[in-house]
Design brief:
single chain, alpha/beta, Transcription Regulator spoIIAA, 3 domains, 5-stranded mixed sheet, 4-stranded mixed sheet, 14 strands
Length: 340
């Protein structure tokens, strides 16, 4: 990109813009990357692009076909990250459960996601790995069982649902039904009862009736999940959904979003309540917010402590005492409760 920018030359002022873009069909390569600068956590990219054709999504048009790194290269990057004393690595990608498709988007899988996490589990120096998000149809029993007994992968999954109505899942062109999703949640909780499970859900998709929305609300209310990421549907040109009939009025979309976000708050509070009195490992982060230092347990309970710079990027075992009275849903600790 720098070479391209440096090569640009001043052009006469006209009323026409110059657009430089390559066809997405030409994007058949993979570029590895990871974030740096945060002492506590790094985001490690392992996969890019997507072969799915969900009706609401523009990612395949912008990022191309699914393609991924090799296990060996990801392990090498994890080793480099470990040398920088970062404690936690979050595995990211557009559709990471599809890991294994070649660097050129080839269709023959030689490596799979389970191979990657097995190899990463043996990298010394990394305390924790989190899986950013994984499709329910790609979250196999093998992956769940491995995470449950692994040395470094934490009990925290984020699994997109989008809708609890099978009719809407079909319209969205998702690759599963609600029954499979419920089965995945049950499998996770069977092997990891304390596991945190996050959910993506979309409200107001074209054709979503009140009955469809209530099916989603009731399904999520009954599921043993921990929090929701709620997205209000918005039209995206070029997607299949943009041409569908039955648009949901904006005010209805907003109301449904409000209801699900309220449900999410209740789910998170209930999940936190279940862990009061338990001992957990907390990794401290660097932000000083109103005199508090924050961190997360392995299973993604947010904990706060009186700020102490000496605790930054340190892991401590603590007993979770109480939930804050000020409306926050993190755990409040006192200085005396923080072991050296």
């Amino acid at each position: 990109m720098l070479d391209y920018i440096n090569d640009l030359q001043e052009q006469p002022v006209t009323d026409k813009a110059l657009v430089y873009a390559s066809s997405i069909d030409e994007v058949d390569f993979y570029v590895d990357a990871y974030s740096y600068g945060d002492r506590t956590r790094t985001f490690l990219k392992v996969q890019d692009g997507c072969d799915y054709g969900c009706a609401f999504c523009t990612i395949p048009m912008a990022r191309g076909n699914s393609r991924s790194d090799t296990v060996d290269n990801v392990v090498e990057q994890a080793e480099n990250i470990a040398a920088s004393e970062v404690r936690e690595v979050v595995l990211t990608g557009v559709n990471i459960g599809d890991f294994g498709k070649g660097n050129s988007g080839g269709r023959k899988k030689q490596e799979q996601f389970i191979d990657l996490i097995r190899a990463l589990d043996d990298v010394e120096g990394i305390e924790r790995y989190r899986i950013s998000s994984i499709e329910p149809n790609l979250l196999t029993n093998e992956i769940i069982e491995f995470v449950a007994q692994s040395k470094r992968f934490v009990p925290h999954f984020h699994v997109p649902l989008q809708s609890g109505s099978n009719k809407m899942l079909n319209k969205m062109r998702r690759r599963y039904l609600r029954e499979l999703y419920a089965d995945r949640v049950d499998a996770i909780k069977t092997h990891m009862p304390d596991c945190c499970i996050g959910v993506d859900v979309i409200v107001g998709f074209p054709g979503e009736t009140e009955e469809d929305f209530l099916a989603t609300y009731n399904f999520l209310n009954e599921l043993d999940v921990s929090y929701l990421h709620v997205f209000t549907y918005s039209e995206r040109p070029g997607t299949a959904a943009a041409g569908m009939g039955g648009p949901v009025p904006n005010e209805v979309r907003k109301e449904r979003t409000r209801m699900l976000r309220g449900l999410s708050a209740k789910k998170r509070r209930y999940f936190y309540d279940q862990h009061i009195g338990s001992q957990r490992q907390v990794l401290m982060e660097s932000e000083n917010k109103d005199g508090w230092l924050h961190g997360f347990t392995e299973n993604y309970v947010k904990v706060r402590f009186p700020y102490d710079a000496a605790l930054i990027n340190q892991t401590r075992q603590v007993t979770l005492q109480q939930i804050a009275d000020d409306g926050n849903v993190d755990i409040v600790m006192t200085d005396e409760q923080i072991p050296a």
